[in-house]
Each structure stands twice: as structure tokens, then as C-alpha cells.
């Protein structure tokens, strides 16, 4: 059987990006060690299998060296290590899919004469974060007191997503690439991104993160939309990002979720800090790290106390068991692709304006029966 001369540096690069070790690759490709030493070459079918396994374009294997891949959007992340310097195939594929969905929705909005959203790009980093947070609160119809009455972080996140979508923002939440449960997204690589657009602003949240962390990321990315600043973020509450835009978006997010006036009224100085941040986090439906940072912002704790408790709380959070995935498929579908987007593309397909293959691809479904059931669950058809 004929073989092909695949580039050894690119083979190594593809395996490393896919987090595949030599032992597992040798189990699947018996001559893997020989390929790396140049003593054997893969067949075309083997190379195609390897490309699919590593989510690598097959043409790359004929290059003398690995390609220099870059993000298609501005990168606001803090590069803590070299691994973030090059985006993973999981992140890139998620971005490309969301851009395709946004392009579709933009054309849908134009076709139906939907108005441009005046809040997109209406803010500036020169403005006080408190003022912009209030405008966000007014535009979304948010009430801090109403959120404090909700029993869980899940309900609070669901409410915030619904408010954003009602205002015209497409919000997608997923812990995997598309609908592929074998391609899990890494929170260490990114927590979310915003694709600002006057007709189709889109926010993606990494669903592998905790609900409390997703709340902060959503608020942070909403600030990006108000700025009109497309970009990817990995910001975490309590940290102080290097970039001014990220610091400003963090400040807007913190004020949106935990207004200083409400915090001052709720704070109990008699409580030890670890217990107090737990209580405040539950009351405001934020993470304990957000609550801790806000105590410092309010002047209730010193900077030394902030970082001491921050390290202790991070260690406590690391020891918590991972949450189990699952849930109702159709609710998960509307969260993964956004209820606003799902309803629009399903209706467009039923009207004959969008092809079924295109709708299936962007929704991440394979069966016609699943599509029609989703249409019924989302109220698009009876």
C-alpha cells in the first residue's frame, strides 16, 4: 500500500495540540514511533484518520514546519504561560462556528428589518464603570433585589441570559465544541468571548466553568458588547488583568452583579471573612471570589487580607468535586446555541429560507426527528 511523506514536526505538533501521548497513539497507529523517526510513513488513510483524531487540516502535514495559527478576533487574555500563545483547535473551531452563526443571524435580521441595537458600542472605557453598569441594568431590566430572591445560581444565570436575549444579545453556553461531547473546552484556555455587532451581538460562555463564574463572565462580556469591543477573555473575579479594557470590564461586571450600595447595606462586619463571602455570594448569586474582591473595593479588608483569602479560597474551590454533566437535551440545545438563535433558524428552515443541512450543522443536530422536536419544545411549531 502506498504511503505519504508526512512532515515529522507537524505530526509532533498535531499530537501535542490534541494532548495525545505516544503510548495512546502507538496503540492506535502501530508504527507511530517509526513515523517520528522517519523510518516509516503513514498511508493516506492513516494520515486522514490521524488528522480527524487531532482535528488538524490534512494539508498541514505536507508543510515543512507547523503553521503559525492565530485567533480571528482580538485576544484580551492574560498570557500566563506559553500554552495560551497558540489557540487550540477546540477554541478555534468554537470561534469559527459562532462566527458562522452570527453571520447567519445578521442576514436574518437584515432580511426581517430588525433595528440596530443602540447599546452596542455606546460605552467608553473613559466612563465610570458604575455609570455604565447602571445603564446595563436599565437596558436589561435587571433588579439586584429580584436576583437575591432566586434560590440558586443556576436560576440567576438563566434569568440573566434571558434578560440579555430579550434585549437582543445572542448568548450561547457550552462545555464542548459544537455538540461533540468528546471535545471538551478548557476553562484554563478561555472563559468566554464577545462578538460585537449592531444587529447580532453574540456572547459565548465556557459551560465547563461553574455557574457563579459564568455569571461574572456573562456580565464581563456584556460590558464588551456595550463597548463594541469584540474579543476573547479568560478573566477571573478577584484578579487584576493587565489590559485596561479588561480591568474596566471587570469593574462594570462587579458593579452590575454586586452594586456597592447594596453591598454596604448587606455587609456584616462581625462575620469572619471566609463565612461572610460565602453568605454574600449566596445572597447576590455571585462567586465567593467576586464577593471577596468587592469587600476589598469597599474598603472592608486590606490588600494583604484580600490576597491571603484569595489564595485560600482558590485552594478550597480546587478541592470541590466536579459537577456532573447532563440535563434535558432540548433545554441544553437552546442554551448551547441560544434560544433566540435556535428559534430564528428553525423558523427560517420551516419557511424554506434556510436549508435543512445548514440548520442541522449550525444547531448541531443530526436527525430530522430531533429538529422537529426542538421546534415544538421552543414553541416554533405546535
TrEMBL record:
Pfam families: Peptidase_M78
Xref: InterPro entries: IrrE_HExxH, Rad_response_metalloprotease
Domain called IrrE N-terminal-like: residue spans: 165-295
Name of this protein: IrrE N-terminal-like domain-containing protein
Lineage, highest ranks first: Bacteria, Thermotogati, Deinococcota, Deinococci, Thermales
